[in-house]
Specification:
Length: 410
């Protein structure tokens, strides 16, 4: 039996991580004040919410992770969370995307204390609030993250208590609450038949309100996790018909297309993500990876795609100068360009690509090699300012450098 993947296509603005296996993984990004009627929802202007979704241009050394620990690491609303990881302790007020099983268990173990120290419901009376705990926006973020952590660790009782408190506060007809209820049912499903029943419930809800985005995304996630990729692609395209500025949906669509080997469609979807979030360095690198894979799978236009891939990787490290995946991809792409026989090319108005000259490619390759070596060396030495990288990515970089060293010795 194939269980539903609980964190694919979050029911809220979500994040994107691209792991060493070169794939997109959606995780729930539980942003503050997203419930209509919450303490901050109406107080925040549309411009404020737009700024939360859009990375703020800064100097590369100010925004890159992990050395500088930018607090706006999770700036790509929709399906994008930047690949760089934090070495901070897990917290219930931060996104849960990159938590290890041990970290999720650590958070789930806090459930009894949190549930015991907070009332089931908060009173709106100012007099009552003087003698009891007051409602804060953070408490609902904590309940949501605690719900997800409890589902991951199998603590169904605590998960239901968190869900019950969210229902009391926001009601059964809240779109996010509907999606959370479906998420709990997915987690508790014991067989494929129960998952099919959950899917039917999603379709019933969407039949009444086709623009219920949280439920629509859960439906896509369930279709994907049960292997119905073509239906998931169709559902995502339908979602994008009425929500074309949803970066999360575009990024997930790119992932689905890529899983089917449809490189041109995946590239188009990622271009839409970059239109919405032009400073997302992880998406530039992701585009470079897809272009590199497309070049490896084709013959006719491989150099064009490799040249574009180099440009995307270079842009990603321009935006974040300690971004391991950007340097790793740049190293691979320039290696491939240097090994392939160069073909004369020129830039025209109709085609804005051109293969860089050999000297430029060689310099980029050397820069990538030096930076990868520095990251691996300092991370392995446990330098405090160079921790937070994914261990598998550091290992991949180390292997790449080792193979090149062996080739040079030979």
């Amino acid at each position: 039996m194939q269980r539903a993947q609980l964190t694919h296509l979050s029911i809220t603005p979500a994040s994107l991580k691209c792991g060493s296996s070169v794939r997109l993984v959606g995780v729930a990004y539980l942003a503050r004040g997203r419930y209509p009627g919450s303490l901050t929802y109406k107080q925040r202007s549309s411009n404020d919410r737009r700024q939360q979704r859009e990375p703020v241009p800064r100097k590369p050394t100010q925004i890159c992770l992990p050395r500088y620990r930018a607090t706006r690491a999770n700036t790509l609303s929709g399906f994008c969370e930047y690949y760089c990881h934090s070495n901070m302790a897990p917290s219930l007020v931060r996104p849960q995307g990159h938590l290890s099983p041990a970290e999720a268990l650590e958070l789930a173990q806090k459930a009894p204390t949190i549930l015991r120290n907070n009332p089931n419901a908060f009173s709106s009376s100012p007099l009552v609030s003087l003698f009891s705990a007051s409602e804060t926006p953070e408490i609902w973020i904590i309940y949501e993250n605690l719900l997800l952590a409890c589902l991951r660790t199998g603590d169904g009782q605590a998960a239901h208590q968190c869900l019950e408190r969210l229902v009391i506060r926001f009601g059964d007809d809240n779109e996010r609450i509907m999606a959370f209820k479906g998420l709990v049912k997915e987690a508790e499903a014991d067989n494929d038949g129960e998952l099919v029943q959950v899917l039917k419930e999603y379709e019933t809800i969407l039949g009444q309100n086709a623009t219920n985005i949280p439920v629509a995304k859960r439906r896509v996630a369930l279709l994907k996790s049960t292997g119905k990729i073509s239906e998931a692609i169709s559902a995502l395209n339908s979602l994008l018909d009425f929500s074309p500025t949803d970066a999360e949906a575009w990024a997930e669509l790119a992932d689905l297309y890529l899983s089917q080997g449809l490189y041109s469609q995946a590239i188009f979807a990622l271009e839409e993500v970059l239109v919405l979030t032009p400073n997302a360095w992880n998406i530039h690198a992701r585009m470079g990876e897809v272009l590199y894979m497309a070049a490896s799978a084709s013959d006719g236009s491989s150099q064009q795609q490799l040249a574009e891939s180099v440009k995307r990787f270079a842009r990603s490290i321009e935006l974040c100068d300690d971004y391991l995946r950007g340097y790793y991809g740049l190293k691979l792409a320039t290696n491939k360009l240097l090994k392939e026989p160069s073909k004369p090319s020129r830039q025209t108005d109709a085609d804005d690509w051109a293969v860089p000259d050999t000297n430029a490619v060689q310099k980029l390759n050397e820069v990538a090699t030096q930076k990868l070596a520095e990251i691996v060396r300092r991370n392995s030495a446990k330098d405090r300012l160079w921790q937070g990288y994914d261990e598998s990515e550091v290992a991949a970089a180390r292997d790449l450098l080792s193979k090149e060293s062996v080739e040079l010795v030979r």
